[in-house]
Amino acid sequence: MKFGILLTSIYDGSTPARRQRDEHAELVATAEQAGFSLMVAGQHFLGAELRYFQPVPWLTYMSRHAPSMDVATGIILLSMVNPVDTAEQLSTLDVLTGGRARFGVGLGYSPHEFDAFGVAKGERVPRFEESLELIRQLWSGEKVTFHGRFTGVTDARPAVRPLQAGGPPVWIGGQAAGAVKRAARLGDAWYSPPFPTHDELYALHRLFTDTRAEAGSRPAKEFPVRRELLIADSREDAIEAALVRYRARYETYRKWGLNGQNTPVGKSGEELREDIDQRFILGSPEECAAELHKLGAEIGMTHFVYKPHWPGLPHAEAMRQLDRFGSEVVPLLKD
Questions:
Q1: How does pLDDT run across 92-135, given as a tens digit for each residue?
Q2: 265, pLDDT greater than 90
Q3: How many CB atoms lie within 10 A of CB 58?
Q4: Residue 255's pLDDT band (boundaries 50, 70, 90)?
Q5: Degrees to nearest 5, angle at CA 279 with 326 and 202
Q6: Integer-rounded Cα radius of gyration of the chain
Q7: φ, ψ (nearest 5 deg) of residue 289
Q8: What does the pLDDT look like over 305-321, one tens digit per residue?
Q9: Three-state SS string across 222-260, please?
Q10: What is residue 126's three-state secondary structure?
Q11: Contact 283, 238 (CB under 8 A)
Q12: What is the number of structural domains in the chain?
């Protein structure tokens, strides 16, 4: 099992940008020392509540502070961005990191982002699938003529290509059944977000493997999983701390339009506590290690992507959680 650190935003525009940069640099450097082998950064546009720096330059800079770590976009909003630009951006990232990039992609969900890029609701999936097809062709090294519904090239053979033959592995994110089936058909892996419950995660993984088998594809070599994880001296203490984190982060998800299948939004009271219990990995280092081991043993999780940063909480708390994970959880999993 490998460990990844998620470089997410916890600040709006009122916090100095250098502070966010320096805190993320400290996170990846500490994570590398703790045995982490992956850093992940996602993408959003025009967010007022949380400031997302664009992932390719961000990961390129952060890799200077943790040069042994792989990098992954988690995720690029492929239904919105230009596929030619994205193909060359990811190729550049792969070259600059010595062939250690992974291409995490998804549809997105925020209406204000789709509106900004002029993407109609019915175009999201076809734009995504067409873009992914063109990107892979541009990474092939062969001459490409491609005329799709939304974009096209003629006799193109770009000189900007990735180090990895055929391009970085494609991790497709999403928690709805349709997104998981799309990952099975078109991706190299399904990148599971933290939103499904523990039971839903197992069911969606079965859907992924069954769909892949039905399509005649080989079993996926990687299964990256994001779960919210909180270490405390007792499970009850962990749940109480998770309530603070949940309210701060998931309220932003709701504002940005996250909804639909296997998505936790709008919960309160005792229902919220139950929701956290069903989605978070919580408790002592021993309890957290046992849950991670179970995910590896039972559904083949290869990468656990961990998010220590939460809005409203100090960076020192993120570092404390990361330190406990590296010094108390990781050794138990190695044993």
A1: 999 999 999 999 999 999 999 999 999 999 999 999 999 999 99
A2: no
A3: 21
A4: confident
A5: 100
A6: 19
A7: -65, -40
A8: 999 999 999 999 999 99
A9: CCEEECCEEECCCHHHHHHHHHHHHHHHHHHHHHCCCCC
A10: helix
A11: yes
A12: 1
Cβ contacts of residue 216 below 8 Å, gap of 6+? none
Residue reference for tokens 């399904």: 190
Tell me the per-residue pLDDT of 134-176, one tens digit each, with 9 for 90 and over.
999 999 999 999 999 999 999 999 999 999 999 999 999 999 9
What range defines the domain where residue 111 resides?
A: 2-334
Which residue carries 């939103």 as its tokens? 195
- Distance separating alpha carbons of residues 114 and 80, to the nearest angstrom: 7
Residue 268 has pLDDT above 70, yes or no: no
* Helices 124-138 and 83-96: angle between axes, nearest 10 degrees: 50
Is the torsion defined by CA of 176, 181, 187, 191 positive or negative?
Answer: positive
Identify the helix (H) or strand (E) that includes residue 173: strand 170-173
How far is C-alpha 162 from the geometric centre of its chain's CA atoms? 21
- Residue 213: which residues within 8 A CB-CB, separation 6 or more? 219
Q: What is the DSSP letter of 325?
A: I
The CATH number of whichever domain residue 48 belongs to comes to: 3.20.20.30
Q: Which amino acid is at 68?
A: S
